[in-house]
Write a structure and sequence with these properties.
With 265 residues, this protein is an alpha/beta fold. The chain contains eight helices and nine strands. Strands 4, 5, 6, 7, 8 and 9 form a six-stranded mixed β-sheet that branches. The protein has a three-stranded parallel β-sheet with strand order 2-1-3.
Length: 265
């Protein structure tokens, strides 16, 4: 991750036309808006030293929080890392600057399967940065070995009342529920969406909390038996607690891609 970030971010710097003024010395400032826990703070320090750049680094918890801040022009960022569906929205609303791909010389090192996807078919506005899945992180010492963990149904099992964390993400919570019901993640069928809504309302009494980045620490501490998670967060949590395991349910899931973009701000 560290090497990838330094190389990719240096390429994006070259692509930028304008930088904010730095308040210290002759260094220019790069304003970065990213997901929490994506970059080791030491990487930022190393990057600043190597390229004589001052990095102002801010984090967000959800795509929606990121969108609101940029849309309201309450933060001027040179580089941001939204997810696939949000990138499509930002393109449609004229919030992103087209990239000069000739200046991003290491773009060829990215796997082809992550390029030319529906949210940016010509890769005109975004460079893939991270990808992963949505699944269930569970504590093997807190679940019944007879229970089937490889199904979204486990999140509706009354046995685990107040031992379940759900993601504080509308899209992901509705998405996994649609998959549990046998529907498409991207359905536009109103009846199917209402059915998913009702299922989440039915599940609510079983949920301990709807969480974001803090989920990792909570699962490591054994505060719940299971949680809906992004795979990157699952990997971090499992590295800190050997009782934790991650599964992608058999009904299917979402593959997400977070990409680097340059906002018009």
């Amino acid at each position: 991750m560290k090497k990838t970030f330094k190389v990719m971010l240096s390429a994006c710097i070259v692509a930028l036309v304008l930088f904010s003024s730095s308040c210290g010395g002759n260094r220019e400032t790069l304003n970065v808006f990213n997901w929490g826990d994506y970059i080791d703070p030491q990487v930022l320090k190393d990057f600043e030293k190597e390229y004589n750049i001052r990095v102002v680094y801010e984090e967000f918890d959800t795509n929606e929080d990121m969108y609101v801040k940029i849309a309201n022009n309450s933060g001027k960022y040179d580089v941001a890392m939204p997810s696939d569906y949000m990138i499509r929205r930002m393109i449609n609303e004229g919030m992103l600057i087209p990239l000069d791909m000739a200046k991003i010389t290491n773009y060829g090192g990215i796997e082809e399967r992550h390029k030319n996807l529906p949210f940016d078919q010509d890769n005109a506005y975004s460079v893939p940065y991270m990808w992963g899945t949505v699944g269930i992180l569970y504590n093997t010492s807190m679940v019944d070995t007879d229970d089937e963990m490889e199904s979204w149904d486990i999140l509706w099992n009354p046995k685990y009342e107040k031992k379940i964390f759900m993601l504080n993400s509308i899209r992901d919570s509705i998405g996994i529920t649609l998959k549990r019901l046998g529907y498409s993640l991207n359905t536009k069928n109103e009846q199917e969406i209402l059915e998913a809504r009702d299922a989440l309302i039915e599940q609510k009494p079983l949920v301990l909390s709807y969480v974001g980045d803090e989920m990792k620490d909570k699962m490591v501490a054994g505060e719940a038996a299971m949680s809906v998670v992004w795979s990157g967060d699952a990997a971090v949590a499992m590295s800190e607690n050997e009782d934790l395991a991650y599964v992608i349910p058999k009904e299917g899931t979402n593959i997400w891609i977070d990409s680097m973009v340059i906002p018009t701000t």
